[in-house]
Amino acid sequence: MQFSNVLINWYLTSKRDLPWRKTNDPYRIWLSEIMLQQTRVEQGMPYYFRFIEAFPSVFHLAEASQQEVLKLWQGLGYYSRARNLHDTAKYIAEECDGIFPDNYKELKKLKGVGDYTASAVASICYNEPVAVVDGNVYRVLARYFGSDTPINSSAGVKEFKALATELLDKENPSAFNQALMEFGALQCKPKNPLCVSCPFNNSCLALEENRISELPVKLKKGKIRHRFFNYLVFYSEENTTLLHQRKGKGIWNGLYEFPLIETEKQLTALEFLSLEEIKEKTGENSSIQLYNEKPVVHKLSHQHIYARFWLVSLKKTPAKGIPMSKIAKYPVPVLIQNFLNEYEPADY
Known about the structure:
Its EC number is 3.2.2.31. 42% of the residues lie in helices and 13% in strands. It has 15 helices and 9 strands.
């Protein structure tokens, strides 16, 4: 209980003024928690406000098209979160009359909701005594208890969930969970933690053993995959271009991009233009020019993409074209958006 009291007292005087802390509305709490997975608060905040403005209730979100949701999410990354968010909104609106489940067990059944999100919503909205464990919590607990169990191992997941549950203030789980996450974000930071002013500096094992920089331990990721993307940017005399929607289980499912030719390595211009696929996609009467000799490197968690853009000038697009002025309506990967931000053909 002493740990809980010290932590909550720290929270009451040090917490940030965040919009989702001013409500117990499960829709807004759920939205914020989904957005903040793999995302810093500073990055996620503008998206949260835009979503609330566009979709003030779960019914508004459910009624939107997937394209609208993905467009608003554009740039936040990990797009499966947006697709799951939309699917869950439709389920809540259509099957639950807009009412979210009021307990951890039922919340965890929702699409895109795992242990962390279910625990957060259940404790914050309904004060259910379930412990939250996110990246910040892992770091605080690993350092405080001096644990070198890898946090991304099955043993680590069990160990730190058990520790968080043991420490949990059963009478005030909402404040405790938010306090523990906030403590990791502001005090027990990944780099340069504020150990001198830390209220636990007399009982933290990592500090005592001079192991702050070593903890938490994380297993190394698998080998990074390197991919070579060649985008064909069509622009016709009709001021149209082509966009294709990505499908399947790969990256950027549901987003749009220019016609793509992926190669096993980076080819020279001569090698690339000699590909039979080029003729099939562009036709005979087209002019092709390389836009960027040096590839744009786009790094994702498990793969690095090396992208080059090829400008394809022709009288008429080989399929139904999209007016250049309408491109902004389509959700696209950041890689494509950055290109569009700097690409300015004469008639664009």
